[in-house]
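tl;dr need the bound structure. longer version: we got a ligand (WQD) that a collaborator sent over and nobodys looked at where it sits. i said id run it. heres the input, straight from their email, havent touched it
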Amino acid sequence: MAILVTGGAGFIGSHTCVELLNAGEEIVVMDNFYNSNAKALDGIKEITGKNFKFYEADMLDMAAVDEIFAENDIEAVIHFAGYKCVPESVKKPLMYYSNNLRGTFNILECMKKYGCTKFVFSSSATVYGIPETVPVKEDFPLSAINPYGSTKLIIENLCREMAAASDKWSMILLRYFNPVGAHESGKIGEDPNGIPNNLMPIVLDKATGKREVLSVAGNDYPTPDGTCVRDYIHVVDLAKGHVAAIKKARSSNGALAYNLGTGNGYSVLEILDTFQRVNNIDLGYTIGERRPGDAAATYADPTLAEKELGWKAEKTLEEMCRDAWNFRKLREEENK
Ligand code: WQD
Protein backbone atom coordinates (compact mmCIF):
# COMPACT_ATOMS: atom_id res chain seq x y z
CA MET A 1 0.00 0.00 0.00
CA ALA A 2 1.38 3.43 -0.91
CA ILE A 3 0.55 7.06 -0.22
CA LEU A 4 0.07 9.16 -3.35
CA VAL A 5 1.56 12.64 -2.88
CA THR A 6 0.22 15.03 -5.52
CA GLY A 7 2.44 18.09 -5.96
CA GLY A 8 5.16 16.11 -4.20
CA ALA A 9 8.00 18.03 -5.88
CA GLY A 10 6.75 21.31 -4.45
CA PHE A 11 7.88 23.21 -1.35
CA ILE A 12 5.66 21.56 1.26
CA GLY A 13 5.16 18.40 -0.80
CA SER A 14 8.87 17.57 -1.04
CA HIS A 15 9.43 18.09 2.69
CA THR A 16 6.41 15.88 3.40
CA CYS A 17 7.82 13.14 1.13
CA VAL A 18 11.01 13.19 3.22
CA GLU A 19 9.13 12.81 6.49
CA LEU A 20 6.84 10.08 5.09
CA LEU A 21 9.85 8.07 3.89
CA ASN A 22 11.64 8.65 7.19
CA ALA A 23 8.52 7.29 8.93
CA GLY A 24 8.74 4.10 6.85
CA GLU A 25 5.85 4.90 4.52
CA GLU A 26 5.85 3.88 0.84
CA ILE A 27 5.07 6.83 -1.45
CA VAL A 28 4.17 7.49 -5.08
CA VAL A 29 4.76 11.07 -6.22
CA MET A 30 2.94 12.99 -8.93
CA ASP A 31 3.83 16.49 -10.13
CA ASN A 32 3.58 18.51 -13.36
CA PHE A 33 6.50 20.81 -12.36
CA TYR A 34 4.31 23.91 -12.79
CA ASN A 35 5.85 25.47 -9.66
CA SER A 36 8.63 23.00 -8.87
CA ASN A 37 11.46 21.08 -10.53
CA ALA A 38 13.06 17.65 -10.60
CA LYS A 39 15.90 18.76 -8.30
CA ALA A 40 13.46 18.36 -5.42
CA LEU A 41 13.02 14.67 -6.26
CA ASP A 42 16.79 14.16 -6.19
CA GLY A 43 16.93 15.99 -2.87
CA ILE A 44 14.29 13.71 -1.33
CA LYS A 45 16.27 10.64 -2.41
CA GLU A 46 19.60 12.06 -1.19
CA ILE A 47 18.19 13.01 2.21
CA THR A 48 16.38 9.72 2.86
CA GLY A 49 18.49 7.28 0.86
CA LYS A 50 15.18 5.87 -0.39
CA ASN A 51 13.60 5.61 -3.81
CA PHE A 52 10.00 6.01 -4.93
CA LYS A 53 7.90 5.96 -8.11
CA PHE A 54 7.38 9.33 -9.77
CA TYR A 55 4.85 10.32 -12.43
CA GLU A 56 5.25 13.62 -14.27
CA ALA A 57 1.55 14.20 -14.69
CA ASP A 58 -1.06 16.92 -14.53
CA MET A 59 -4.04 16.36 -12.26
CA LEU A 60 -6.24 17.77 -15.05
CA ASP A 61 -5.30 14.72 -17.16
CA MET A 62 -7.80 12.15 -15.89
CA ALA A 63 -6.22 9.32 -17.88
CA ALA A 64 -2.85 10.03 -16.26
CA VAL A 65 -4.36 10.14 -12.77
CA ASP A 66 -6.28 6.92 -13.45
CA GLU A 67 -3.06 5.23 -14.62
CA ILE A 68 -1.37 6.03 -11.29
CA PHE A 69 -4.20 4.39 -9.35
CA ALA A 70 -4.38 1.44 -11.77
CA GLU A 71 -0.64 0.78 -11.52
CA ASN A 72 -0.26 1.27 -7.76
CA ASP A 73 -2.08 0.10 -4.64
CA ILE A 74 -2.88 3.58 -3.28
CA GLU A 75 -4.04 3.54 0.35
CA ALA A 76 -4.25 7.30 0.84
CA VAL A 77 -3.69 10.60 -0.95
CA ILE A 78 -1.99 13.72 0.34
CA HIS A 79 -3.13 16.40 -2.08
CA PHE A 80 -0.82 19.41 -2.48
CA ALA A 81 -1.15 20.04 -6.23
CA GLY A 82 -2.74 23.39 -7.03
CA TYR A 83 -2.14 27.05 -7.79
CA LYS A 84 -1.51 29.10 -4.65
CA CYS A 85 -0.68 32.73 -5.41
CA VAL A 86 -3.36 34.96 -3.90
CA PRO A 87 -2.79 38.09 -6.07
CA GLU A 88 -2.64 35.95 -9.22
CA SER A 89 -5.92 34.30 -8.24
CA VAL A 90 -7.56 37.75 -8.01
CA LYS A 91 -6.47 38.52 -11.58
CA LYS A 92 -7.23 35.02 -12.96
CA PRO A 93 -10.15 33.47 -11.00
CA LEU A 94 -11.20 31.11 -13.80
CA MET A 95 -7.67 29.69 -14.07
CA TYR A 96 -7.66 29.05 -10.32
CA TYR A 97 -11.14 27.57 -10.11
CA SER A 98 -10.60 25.45 -13.23
CA ASN A 99 -7.23 24.04 -12.16
CA ASN A 100 -7.70 23.64 -8.42
CA LEU A 101 -11.27 22.34 -8.53
CA ARG A 102 -11.23 20.19 -11.67
CA GLY A 103 -7.89 18.72 -10.63
CA THR A 104 -9.17 17.85 -7.17
CA PHE A 105 -12.36 16.38 -8.64
CA ASN A 106 -10.22 14.08 -10.79
CA ILE A 107 -8.22 12.93 -7.77
CA LEU A 108 -11.34 12.28 -5.69
CA GLU A 109 -13.13 10.54 -8.60
CA CYS A 110 -10.20 8.15 -9.00
CA MET A 111 -10.04 7.56 -5.25
CA LYS A 112 -13.72 6.62 -5.32
CA LYS A 113 -13.26 4.35 -8.35
CA TYR A 114 -10.33 2.48 -6.78
CA GLY A 115 -11.70 2.31 -3.24
CA CYS A 116 -9.13 4.71 -1.75
CA THR A 117 -10.87 6.51 1.11
CA LYS A 118 -8.16 8.39 3.03
CA PHE A 119 -7.61 11.98 1.88
CA VAL A 120 -5.31 14.57 3.46
CA PHE A 121 -5.96 17.97 1.95
CA SER A 122 -3.57 20.93 1.78
CA SER A 123 -5.96 23.60 2.99
CA SER A 124 -5.04 27.03 4.27
CA ALA A 125 -5.72 29.53 7.03
CA THR A 126 -7.09 31.67 4.24
CA VAL A 127 -10.41 29.82 4.71
CA TYR A 128 -10.87 31.93 7.87
CA GLY A 129 -10.97 35.10 5.77
CA ILE A 130 -9.98 37.99 8.03
CA PRO A 131 -10.66 36.51 11.50
CA GLU A 132 -12.48 38.69 14.05
CA THR A 133 -10.12 37.62 16.85
CA VAL A 134 -6.88 35.69 17.33
CA PRO A 135 -5.71 33.04 17.97
CA VAL A 136 -7.76 31.30 15.29
CA LYS A 137 -9.63 28.12 16.21
CA GLU A 138 -10.96 25.45 13.84
CA ASP A 139 -14.59 26.28 14.68
CA PHE A 140 -14.21 29.92 13.61
CA PRO A 141 -16.47 31.10 10.77
CA LEU A 142 -15.19 30.21 7.31
CA SER A 143 -15.19 32.63 4.40
CA ALA A 144 -13.26 33.34 1.24
CA ILE A 145 -11.72 36.76 0.54
CA ASN A 146 -10.01 35.84 -2.73
CA PRO A 147 -10.43 33.23 -5.49
CA TYR A 148 -7.52 31.14 -4.14
CA GLY A 149 -9.25 31.00 -0.76
CA SER A 150 -12.56 30.20 -2.47
CA THR A 151 -11.06 27.11 -4.11
CA LYS A 152 -9.71 25.91 -0.75
CA LEU A 153 -13.07 26.48 0.93
CA ILE A 154 -15.05 24.78 -1.85
CA ILE A 155 -12.80 21.72 -1.65
CA GLU A 156 -13.14 21.64 2.15
CA ASN A 157 -16.93 21.83 1.79
CA LEU A 158 -16.89 19.02 -0.78
CA CYS A 159 -14.85 16.87 1.62
CA ARG A 160 -17.31 17.55 4.45
CA GLU A 161 -20.27 16.69 2.22
CA MET A 162 -18.65 13.50 0.89
CA ALA A 163 -17.94 12.42 4.47
CA ALA A 164 -21.57 13.16 5.39
CA ALA A 165 -22.79 11.07 2.43
CA SER A 166 -20.70 8.01 3.28
CA ASP A 167 -18.87 7.02 6.47
CA LYS A 168 -16.20 5.23 4.45
CA TRP A 169 -14.36 8.52 3.87
CA SER A 170 -11.62 9.86 6.13
CA MET A 171 -10.86 13.44 5.16
CA ILE A 172 -8.18 15.35 7.08
CA LEU A 173 -8.17 19.07 6.21
CA LEU A 174 -4.89 20.74 7.20
CA ARG A 175 -5.06 24.53 7.44
CA TYR A 176 -1.54 25.90 7.00
CA PHE A 177 -0.52 29.27 8.34
CA ASN A 178 2.76 30.66 6.95
CA PRO A 179 5.21 27.93 5.95
CA VAL A 180 8.85 29.04 5.71
CA GLY A 181 12.33 27.54 6.01
CA ALA A 182 13.90 24.45 4.44
CA HIS A 183 15.31 21.07 5.33
CA GLU A 184 18.52 21.54 7.36
CA SER A 185 20.50 19.66 4.70
CA GLY A 186 19.81 22.47 2.22
CA LYS A 187 18.94 19.84 -0.41
CA ILE A 188 15.28 20.88 -0.63
CA GLY A 189 13.54 24.18 0.06
CA GLU A 190 11.29 26.88 -1.32
CA ASP A 191 12.27 27.17 -4.98
CA PRO A 192 9.27 28.71 -6.76
CA ASN A 193 9.16 29.26 -10.49
CA GLY A 194 8.46 32.87 -11.44
CA ILE A 195 8.19 35.97 -9.23
CA PRO A 196 7.35 35.14 -5.60
CA ASN A 197 4.67 36.92 -3.62
CA ASN A 198 5.33 35.54 -0.14
CA LEU A 199 7.58 37.40 2.30
CA MET A 200 10.39 34.87 2.78
CA PRO A 201 11.15 34.19 -0.91
CA ILE A 202 11.17 37.96 -1.42
CA VAL A 203 13.59 38.37 1.50
CA LEU A 204 15.83 35.70 -0.03
CA ASP A 205 15.71 37.42 -3.42
CA LYS A 206 16.79 40.67 -1.73
CA ALA A 207 19.56 38.87 0.19
CA THR A 208 20.96 37.36 -3.02
CA GLY A 209 20.74 40.65 -4.92
CA LYS A 210 18.12 39.19 -7.26
CA ARG A 211 15.74 41.90 -6.05
CA GLU A 212 16.47 45.61 -5.66
CA VAL A 213 13.75 46.60 -3.20
CA LEU A 214 12.40 44.90 -0.10
CA SER A 215 9.42 46.90 1.09
CA VAL A 216 7.57 46.33 4.35
CA ALA A 217 3.88 46.47 3.35
CA GLY A 218 2.72 49.02 5.86
CA ASN A 219 3.75 49.88 9.43
CA ASP A 220 0.55 51.55 10.58
CA TYR A 221 -1.37 48.45 11.65
CA PRO A 222 -2.74 48.03 15.19
CA THR A 223 0.11 45.69 16.16
CA PRO A 224 3.06 46.11 18.57
CA ASP A 225 5.43 47.47 15.91
CA GLY A 226 2.81 48.50 13.33
CA THR A 227 3.63 45.71 10.89
CA CYS A 228 1.47 42.65 10.16
CA VAL A 229 1.68 39.63 12.44
CA ARG A 230 1.61 36.09 11.07
CA ASP A 231 2.10 32.53 12.34
CA TYR A 232 5.28 31.44 10.57
CA ILE A 233 5.87 27.69 10.81
CA HIS A 234 8.96 25.72 9.78
CA VAL A 235 8.16 23.62 6.71
CA VAL A 236 9.68 20.53 8.37
CA ASP A 237 7.25 20.89 11.30
CA LEU A 238 4.46 21.29 8.77
CA ALA A 239 5.61 18.15 6.92
CA LYS A 240 5.61 16.14 10.14
CA GLY A 241 2.00 17.25 10.63
CA HIS A 242 1.11 15.34 7.46
CA VAL A 243 2.65 12.13 8.79
CA ALA A 244 0.49 12.54 11.88
CA ALA A 245 -2.54 13.25 9.68
CA ILE A 246 -2.07 9.98 7.76
CA LYS A 247 -2.01 8.10 11.07
CA LYS A 248 -5.22 9.91 12.07
CA ALA A 249 -6.86 9.05 8.74
CA ARG A 250 -6.15 5.37 9.41
CA SER A 251 -8.05 5.49 12.69
CA SER A 252 -10.95 7.84 11.98
CA ASN A 253 -13.83 8.61 9.63
CA GLY A 254 -15.42 11.86 8.64
CA ALA A 255 -13.99 15.26 7.76
CA LEU A 256 -11.66 16.69 10.40
CA ALA A 257 -9.96 20.11 10.15
CA TYR A 258 -6.76 21.08 11.96
CA ASN A 259 -4.70 24.26 12.20
CA LEU A 260 -1.04 23.62 11.48
CA GLY A 261 0.63 26.62 13.06
CA THR A 262 2.91 27.36 16.00
CA GLY A 263 0.46 29.52 17.94
CA ASN A 264 3.08 32.30 17.91
CA GLY A 265 2.60 35.50 15.92
CA TYR A 266 5.64 37.32 14.55
CA SER A 267 5.60 40.71 12.83
CA VAL A 268 7.21 41.46 9.48
CA LEU A 269 9.91 43.49 11.22
CA GLU A 270 10.61 40.61 13.62
CA ILE A 271 11.09 38.33 10.62
CA LEU A 272 13.46 40.76 8.91
CA ASP A 273 15.42 41.50 12.07
CA THR A 274 15.72 37.80 12.95
CA PHE A 275 16.81 36.93 9.41
CA GLN A 276 19.47 39.65 9.47
CA ARG A 277 20.75 38.60 12.88
CA VAL A 278 21.00 34.85 12.38
CA ASN A 279 22.47 35.17 8.87
CA ASN A 280 24.58 38.28 9.50
CA ILE A 281 23.04 40.02 6.48
CA ASP A 282 21.85 43.63 6.13
CA LEU A 283 18.69 43.43 4.03
CA GLY A 284 18.29 47.18 3.52
CA TYR A 285 14.51 47.18 3.62
CA THR A 286 12.19 50.18 3.27
CA ILE A 287 8.73 50.88 4.69
CA GLY A 288 6.06 50.99 1.99
CA GLU A 289 2.31 51.11 1.54
CA ARG A 290 -0.11 48.53 2.93
CA ARG A 291 -0.91 45.54 0.72
CA PRO A 292 -4.66 45.37 -0.05
CA GLY A 293 -6.43 42.55 1.76
CA ASP A 294 -3.81 42.00 4.47
CA ALA A 295 -5.09 41.25 7.95
CA ALA A 296 -3.29 43.05 10.76
CA ALA A 297 -2.71 39.85 12.73
CA THR A 298 -3.53 36.20 12.29
CA TYR A 299 -2.06 33.23 14.11
CA ALA A 300 -3.26 29.76 15.06
CA ASP A 301 -4.57 28.10 18.15
CA PRO A 302 -2.84 24.76 17.44
CA THR A 303 -4.13 22.88 20.48
CA LEU A 304 -6.60 20.67 18.57
CA ALA A 305 -3.82 19.24 16.36
CA GLU A 306 -1.71 18.65 19.45
CA LYS A 307 -4.59 16.87 21.19
CA GLU A 308 -5.95 14.81 18.27
CA LEU A 309 -2.90 14.36 16.01
CA GLY A 310 -0.27 14.25 18.70
CA TRP A 311 1.58 16.91 16.69
CA LYS A 312 3.19 20.19 17.80
CA ALA A 313 5.53 22.52 15.96
CA GLU A 314 8.99 22.55 17.54
CA LYS A 315 11.35 24.65 15.41
CA THR A 316 12.18 28.27 16.20
CA LEU A 317 12.02 31.41 14.11
CA GLU A 318 15.83 31.45 14.14
CA GLU A 319 15.88 27.96 12.59
CA MET A 320 13.32 29.03 9.97
CA CYS A 321 15.46 31.99 8.92
CA ARG A 322 18.76 30.06 9.05
CA ASP A 323 17.45 27.08 7.09
CA ALA A 324 15.73 29.22 4.46
CA TRP A 325 18.97 31.12 3.76
CA ASN A 326 21.12 27.96 3.85
CA PHE A 327 18.98 26.36 1.12
CA ARG A 328 18.90 29.49 -1.03
CA LYS A 329 22.71 29.92 -0.80
CA LEU A 330 23.31 26.31 -1.85
CA ARG A 331 20.79 26.53 -4.69
CA GLU A 332 22.40 29.75 -5.99
CA GLU A 333 25.78 28.01 -5.95
CA GLU A 334 24.37 25.03 -7.90
CA ASN A 335 22.78 27.32 -10.48
CA LYS A 336 26.01 29.23 -11.17
C1 WQD B 1 3.28 37.85 5.03
C2 WQD B 1 3.41 39.26 5.55
C3 WQD B 1 2.67 40.97 4.03
C4 WQD B 1 5.78 40.67 1.03
C5 WQD B 1 -0.24 34.08 2.08
C6 WQD B 1 -1.52 33.46 1.62
C7 WQD B 1 -1.83 32.27 2.48
C8 WQD B 1 -0.66 31.31 2.48
C9 WQD B 1 0.59 32.02 2.96
C10 WQD B 1 -1.03 29.65 0.80
C11 WQD B 1 2.18 40.11 5.19
C12 WQD B 1 4.15 41.11 4.35
C13 WQD B 1 4.97 40.45 2.14
C14 WQD B 1 6.59 41.84 0.98
C15 WQD B 1 5.76 42.49 3.13
N1 WQD B 1 -0.44 30.77 1.19
N2 WQD B 1 4.98 41.36 3.16
N3 WQD B 1 6.55 42.70 2.04
O1 WQD B 1 -0.25 37.04 2.96
O2 WQD B 1 0.14 36.06 5.30
O3 WQD B 1 -0.40 34.54 3.39
O4 WQD B 1 0.81 33.12 2.06
O5 WQD B 1 -1.69 28.89 1.47
O6 WQD B 1 -2.96 31.63 1.94
O7 WQD B 1 -2.55 34.41 1.79
O8 WQD B 1 1.82 35.66 3.49
O9 WQD B 1 4.19 35.89 2.92
O10 WQD B 1 2.46 37.00 1.41
O11 WQD B 1 2.92 37.94 3.66
O12 WQD B 1 5.75 43.28 4.08
O13 WQD B 1 7.35 42.10 -0.01
O14 WQD B 1 4.52 39.87 4.92
O15 WQD B 1 2.05 42.22 4.00
O16 WQD B 1 1.90 40.95 6.26
P1 WQD B 1 0.28 35.95 3.81
P2 WQD B 1 2.89 36.60 2.78
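gonna send this back to them w/ a short note. The CA atoms of residues 88 and 148 lie 9 Å apart.
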